[in-house]
Amino acid sequence: MSQSRVSYKTSDEVDFVIIGSGAAGGVMAKELSTNGFRVVVLEQGPYLTEADFSHNEIDVVFNHQLTNNPKFQPTTFRKAEQDKAQKQYSVMYGRCVGGSSVHFTANFWRLHEIDFLERTKVGDVPGASLVDWPIRYEDLEPYYTKVEWECGVSGLAGASPFDPPRSKPYPMPPLPVKGSGVIFERAAKKLGYHPFPAPMAILSQPRPGRSACVNCGFCLGFGCEVKAKSTALSAMIPLAEATGRCEIRSNCYVYRIETDKTGRAVGAVYFDAKKNSHLQKAKAVVVCANGAETPRLLLLSKSAQFPNGLANSSGLVGKYLMPNSGAIVFATFDEPLNDYKGFAVSRIFHDFYEMDVKKTGIYGGGGLDARFDLTPITFALGALPPDTPKWGSGFKKALNQNFTRTMEIFCHGTSLAVETNSFSLDPDVKDAWGLPALRMTFRDHPNDLKLSEWMKNRALEILDAAGAKAKWSGPIQEQQFAVHLLGTCRMGNDSKTAVINTDHRAHDVKNLFLCDGSSMVTSGRGQPTMTIQALAFRAADRITALAKRGEIG
Amino acid sequence: MSGASTGRREFLLRAGGSAGLAWLGAQWPSIVAAAEHAHQAVKSTTPVKFQVLTPAQARDVEAIAAQIIPTDDLPGAREAGVVYFIDQALKTFASDTVATYQKGLAELNSLTTSNYPGVKQFADANNAQQQALLHEISDEVKSHDVGGRRRPQTAASNDFFQTVWQHTIFGFLVDPSGGGNREFAGWKVIGRDPEHSFAPPFGFYDKDYPGWQKAMEAEEKK
């Protein structure tokens, strides 16, 4: 239920309409309303709170309580542009107030300096469109710090020799170590790596109105009932609403950004819960709908003046999709870890953050984390050794032995930007509102598969060194499913090669701003939410300055 | 079935307690609401009679579930009330699989009668016969995705055995507020403590952990 203290009429021309209330939209709502602006946030999903969250895996995970439901919003997939896309559940994102931050793992890694200028450092990569960011790590550092302190991130500054410089320590100590973390730490150290306590957007100490983590064990995929997870919902939205200037309007599915004859955005058109259409008028529009829905909305907003979609004179809206690469390795041990208790990740390392291209022939890099992110049902369906009988007493015995003794090492890595990897509008398939479905076209750059394979083998070595009783992993395959939705409206100074400028303003539309995973120029090494929120804090500063100078109007 | 709601209520209360009074004051009504909701859910999913399955079909479904997760010195699908969970599922979120069940059960029973003349339905077959029959229809059960990125599997499937298999796991392991896992039978088998609030150390490997700094120093010395 909304706690909004204000509600605007759709005919009120508010200062900003923000589309999406997730990691970026939540920050944007809080910052812009705090700065004195009148804000309406339109969220396509429901406004759920702690009382609505549960540990019922069927409702939450399998019936999509917190995420887009492919039954009503089908997606399609194809590997190459010449193929016909087939209906396939290929994209998952948060669809509720707070967006994907409600159900995320809460791994909060900053980008490193290299992520912003990798092209300069490694040169051209054949088959990829690798470019430098128009901003640098130093530009974003103050905002990373802001995220850590304002949202609440636990961690230990200086614990990793690979960490980029920081202006302030974390606001609170790391979460407790888990069995998976101890096992990983000891083995990684033995092999000469530098494991350290994972920075996590989960409170290790209570904050006003929010509990510290109680280690309930239903974390990834679930909403936090005690507000320990630092989501947009727990950390940002309440502050936005408390200003009395921000209305969170849920169950509002925006399908068009309206423009006038001068090419200026005039507001957002949406279906309400009863599928009635409304236009919320605003002086400026900020789209924070995620790296899939933001480009889709721009493509849906085409007009005589913008025949290829809004803000798409470059033709790059929806392109350069980067979902991050990776691999999962499982292992069992002799004694119980009981790793189902607590949050997912307690130890990571970044020794592979910058791969040595000359030595390995692999670009980019990655990080490894030790985790257990499974709940009883997802465990039984997906985490038993491959030779386990599928039913009967052998199956039961494996359930009995393994649930408390299993851990994972999750490898996260670079996705190189490839122009043909994209989100676009499916020409045939429609959603339950009659709108063109989201179509994903994707084939991993060969480098990213190589990187995943390489990291997987390092993870297996670590588990060997740890004395695992058994270890296994599936083959590295081309990905057909994305949760990190990055790069699809990239930032850049040149309107021919980028969709937004460094103020997050669309090159083509003066009062339209885009900020979410779509803004990213490179993929980082996984864990994009921290960066998405830092970008949002920075963008809100830039937008505020423009508005106060009268340069948006 | 009070165990489930007690565990959950305790979780919520403890969680509130650890955050201090301000949090409790603000959240009290919703905490109570959530706990009560869970309590009601557990109560209301203890059915008096089957709603979708006929009694004969229910016997077959229960027998299949009991083959998937048999009873030994630990409880199995039968004790977890999986068949009641499935019947409820067929009325609600899995209603699109009713036809799969109807057709699948009919086919399984003709297979039963043809393989074992005189045996009327699957549930009446003996243990060895039931296992042979299930092997015959389950050859196509696909191994799930253990590598690469996991993706949540959709609840619906066209394959009868695959569908019952998944629903059995759902009913055996779901938090009891979801209508299965009676008396935490499933969690007893996997070793999941029904509490929803834990303090470290969690297990064997972290119990003597000296803290990160000390652990690093100890490693340096080696």
Q: Would you kindly provide a written description of the structure presented here, covering whatever features stand out?
A:
The complex is a heterodimer of chains A (553) and B (222). In chain A, a hairpin with a 5-residue loop joins strand 7 and strand 8. The longest helix of chain A has 20 residues. With 553 residues, chain A is an alpha/beta fold. In chain A, strands 1, 2, 6, 7, 8, 9 and 17 form a 7-stranded mixed β-sheet that branches. A 6-stranded antiparallel β-sheet of chain A has the order 5-11-12-13-10-16, with helices on one face. Chain A has 2 domains: 337 residues, FAD/NAD(P)-binding domain (3-Layer(bba) Sandwich); 163 residues, Cholesterol Oxidase, domain 2, CATH 3.30.410. Chain A has 13 helices and 17 strands. In chain A, helix 1 runs parallel beside helix 7, helix 1 runs parallel beside helix 13 and helix 5 crosses helix 13. Helix content of chain A is 24%, strand content 17%. Chain B is mostly helical and 222 residues long. Chain B is elongated. The N terminus of chain B is likely disordered. Chain B folds into 2 domains: 43 residues, no CATH class; 130 residues, no CATH class. The N and C termini of chain B lie far apart (53 Å). Chains A and B meet through helix 2, helix 6, strand 5, strand 10 and helix 10 of A and helix 1, helix 2, helix 6, helix 7 and helix 8 of B.
